[in-house]
Amino acid sequence: MTATQSTLDYDVVIIGAGISGIGAAHYLRAEHPEKTFAILESRDAIGGTWDLFRYPGIRSDSDLYTFGYEFKPWTDPQSIADAPRILDYLHGAVADDNLADKITFHRRVLAADWSDDTQAWTLTVAQTDKGSRAKPATITTRWIFSGTGYYNYEQGYAPTFPGEDTFAGQVIHPQHWPEDLDYRGKRVVIVGSGATAVTLMPAMAPDTEHITMLQRTPSYIIPVPREDPLAKTAMRVLGEDRGFQVNRKRSILQQKAIYEFCQRFPQAARKALRKINAMQLPKDFDVETHFNPPYDPWDQRLCVVPDGDMYKEISKGQASIVTGKIKTFDATGIELEDGSHLDADIIITATGLNLQLFGGMELTVNGTAVDVPSTIVYRGAMLSGVPNFLTAIGYTNSSWTLKIGLLCEWFCRVLSHMDKNGYASVRPVAPKVMDTRPLLDFDAGYVKRSIHLLPKQGDVDPWKTTMAVSHDVKNLRKGAVDDGFLRYEKVIAPAGTSS
Questions:
Q1: Residue 371 falls inside a structural domain
Q2: Would the pTM of this model clear 0.90, i.e. be above it?
Q3: How many domains does the chain have?
């Protein structure tokens, strides 16, 4: 049977109703209103990360002028925004494009199989409603847009610590924050030093007896204003739309300048960051121990602290940082290898994420499983040998959404090219000989733990996954959509029929 427009359920199925999936739906609405599409969301609400995580103080670590969409100005005074404001913004985006009826909640894509015969995907979709006994259904679609991010929503990274079962208090992972957790007047220890830990410490500190961030390895931390005075001035003088565009361009250039300075002059950047930290902390604070990572700046992502909130709680004596290695948990807290002890009523294991691509669904092409680690990513968007499948992975050195927007623009341009020429599918074909390297050239623990599960990138365009906005503007927004590496195909008519 031949898959034609009339026999397919959809032109595009978007998986995930987070910031990537909602963005993709906007671009389809704007650039290809004739296309049919659906958004399948495994949870019961939109927002992805911003609805899943419920721990105190959760916020962005990128400014919203770049983390927000180019097509929807961010007008809230907070530049580094908390999760409720981001969710309000995303709900506004859904309303602006009338997307509510396009989203089906409690639907998890378990598997997707591509058929060359039909030039289409067949998805196996399960209902995730609590108590549902419905059998998985099948959906056919020409394209899949995977907006699932790259970590496991079901389970965060939770290493087992010696003696953990002897601890008399509560052990909490931020990805599974209890709604009824009462930490007022309690002694709290946060295990970790990344973005989650530096968010939790100042948010919880005022209500605790004392809170300690226990880090094995320090992170680079930089203060930023929660409300950017220059951005507010631009919005007031130029108006919301023009002010937003100015703020967005300035933020892109600022992010680029900081990243390139750190990469070109790591020792100078290290020295500057330590000096900034020292200026914010008490004079006797041991900056050399607690704010001096063994790696160079931007080998891992910089952690931002809005309005220096973490420094303020340390200066008040309400919070502290301890750098050391855990020997064991015990009934009353944590014993360190140096013999010291951290008393605790609650221990929060801010130990990171588990990577997971495509929401964990299984991909097959003509019945053969796709070996994802052996594939090579084309333009940061498609997998070699896999037709009509786009995965949305944003920048690691800048705002995630900057890359997603450019990927969506490229996707729409490809769709236009296919419609014009009568093509049904396209797949990247990698050169037989090409040097490869890990997809995410990033030193973060959650990446290193799972790098063997990820596809590769090449060492030259268009197989090199760039982290530069200017490069991607040239290649994704303006570059050719038929560059010799893409194999376009039409639907093959059955024998005895006209094409």
A1: yes
A2: yes
A3: 2
